[in-house]
Amino acid sequence: MIDLDDPIELPLEVEEFLSWLVAERGRAPNTIAAYRRDLRAYCAWLAARGDDVTNVATSTLVEFVAARRNEAAASSVARQLAAIRTLHRYLVTEGERADDPTAELEGVRVPAGLPKPLSEAEVAALLDAVVGHDPVALRDRAVLELLYATGARISEACGLSMGDIDFDARLVRLFGKGAKERIVPFGRAAGRALDEWFSARGRVLLAPARWRRRDDAEAVFLNQRGGRLTRQAAWAIVRRHGDRAGIGSELSPHVLRHSCATHLLDHGADLRVVQELLGHASISTTQVYTKVSQERLFEVYRAAHPRAKVSR
What we know:
With 312 residues, the chain is mainly alpha-helical. The protein is built from 14 helices and three strands.
């Protein structure tokens, strides 16, 4: 079995690769942590066989992939293989190797999975589940409204600072993967929720007498200790109110992002516009939502058309 938590020290070439991802590609800390974990397991497996990243052969990589497929889901193996491919391309570019052993390596096919968005009624139930006008309730309502209104990733919402929101134009600046910036509009409902959060009844009551970090003072969303809201805490907000609405078992912040995209397409939004709003680098990533919309269309048709169920 491949130990994903093996504490081996990474080779210098791999550490330099990770530094290059940060400096040259602008990869986020969470992405670097995932690369480090996957590459540590890979290097440990190679070391146990007397190999390293500078001399491993394609045949050895085939054995590695086969071993991983017996231990993990296809999506996990595909993710790890993507990190390994990127590493070896880097080593060739930097002259650390003359060849790329992953060039002829067969990929790992991941079964296509369709996201399961909430219905519009379920979104309404989720937002209605936030009751009260205390600061925490106002914050929670603003978080949920903004996530659904913009399709923002949870990390993007938690990373928002005061200067990232234009309340008059109802626009928010989001920083996505690779620190890519995009401007996304939000509607009146989210605007009202944010206005209430920034009123005298909201954010100011969670602000501490003295900020622990300068970054916290600029944060849009605060926790109850007056610090910037974390991804884990925001996830808990979504799940807590989802439980109250009776949909918690299927709910995550990413489901709200799926729901935003699907509902936009359901109501006639152009695919390219949705791509820009979500910050997808490739249109193919956005196209999965068209399949979801088609499935929903077929379900409605089968349930509603008077002759859809007529037997021959």
